[in-house]
Amino acid sequence: MAVGIFDSGLGGLTVLDAVQRRLPDLPLVYLGDNAHAPYGVRDADDVYDLTTTAVDRLFQAGCDLVILACNTASAAALRRMQESWVPANKRVLGVFVPLIEALTERQWGDNSPPREVAVKHVALFATPATVSSRAFQRELAFRAIGVDVEAQACGGVVDAIEDGDLILAEALVRSHVDALRRKMPTPEAAILGCTHYPLMQEVFQDALGANVAVYSQANLVAESLADYLIRHPKMTGPGEVSQFLTTGEPKRVSSRATQFLRRQIIFEAA
């Protein structure tokens, strides 16, 4: 009954941690494509090829349902995968949906016409690939009207986090927030559109100010997954063992992951 969680690197561990706290008895298979991270600077075809390869590995591990805990993969590859690649008996879900549900205060299954919502000015912080895809804006437009979204490509932040250089990551976050504010001086809400960014959430909040609501993904995705599995209990696959897989060097990735989650995480080669 395992569920797969995929990320280009370590950022998806923020989602895994939240899911484990919400669904402690659910076996999870995590796959980090650390050998090819970061995805945020790759083109859409490259992201698609890498993502399908990784998701297929999770299918082989006994996961019938896979969460793309990578915003770049969700933005650049998910729709194409769902339309032409995912087998009929499998499901691949992205991480934008829970964010948009929270922001617009309506359920994803609500297919009524888009309507005005309380928040009018939204800052989106994401990787260059996610920003260029405009996937968040496209999905939001299905649900809400009159929302001004200003996107800021946060180059370098993922690399700094993956390298464990949180001082550099903080400096980059503050620089990107300053750049966003030059374009949108008074955002009402901010979306952290990368699963690495919750590790810098306090820095984003401090740089943006206490009056800006900051939406992070991990807990929202965990709640959404719990609800999905209630409605689709057969989508838990036959796998029974939790695993951590990586395309990178397992010892190095295990060390970084242990620092991330502050508990021992042992990766094995994918």
Q: What is the general shape?
A: globular
Q: What about the largest sheet?
A: 6 strands, parallel
Fold-level CATH name of the largest domain: Rossmann fold
Count of spatially separate domains: 2
**How far from one another are the termini?**
20 Å
Mean pLDDT equals 92
Give the uncertain stretches in residue-range form.
none
Number of helices: 12
* CATH level-1 class of the largest domain: Alpha Beta
Cα gyration radius (Å)? 18 Å
Helix content range = 40-55%
**Order of strands in the sheet with most strands:** 4-3-1-2-11-12
Helix-strand makeup class: alpha/beta
Element-by-element helix/strand order = EHEHEHHEHEEHHEEHHEHEHEHE
Kindly state the number of beta strands. 12
Quick take:
This protein is α/β, with parallel strands linked by helices and 270 residues long. It contains twelve helices and twelve strands. It is globular and about 50 Å long.
